[in-house]
Amino acid sequence: MPEAPQNNRLAKRVARPRASTRGKRDDILASAIDHFGQDGYEDTKWADVAASVGIGSTALYHYFESKLHCLYVIMADALEAFQDDFERLTSQHEDYLDALIAVLRSGYELGEHEVLRMRVLVAEQGLVGIRRSSPREEEARELARTRTRDLEFAWATFLVRGMQRGLLPEADPRLLARAVLGLNLSVWHWYRPRGTVGLDELADFFVRRQLTVLGLPPELADQVAPAQARPAA
Prior knowledge:
8 helices, mainly alpha, 0% strand
């Protein structure tokens, strides 16, 4: 799909809130998300991240062992936020289908900074499968892997509940969870904040397709009204 021109990219970094109480580590993570999400992980210089938060390159190593270590932390945080939303919404709705649709819509109700974080997660997913010799990198990588499995398990368990109640057709719940999540994750390969397609339009299109994958009528997407986008993490 066509996208809006993105000239002068460094000048158009997504504005991030800076509270005096926020630690330098969080500032580094937020800056790294901006750089990785807009310029790509490989094309981002670690020194640029340091400069954007006002510290020297060597000072970065007080917080992260490497650029890769920082990447794994970003990925683990994105997965944790994804699951936190899932658990919050499924507990808020007593009606199963209301909960399902709310969760599906929530996957597209992101702030610009969250979109960039999802872009980083999807673009560099392959690196999570490569074991690292550095203990800190390996610990962060394993955490990202664990959170991936936890999210899939939570979704599969939720889908089993729907099947047991006769609301969803019987199917392999783990494969079905991966299919539904895969549709959402595919969006962040190409979507850009402030592009030609808005998130509301994106949600209307993809939630209907996800319902179809689950064996449900796409018209159910209108059962729960879209919510306001959540503030950026």
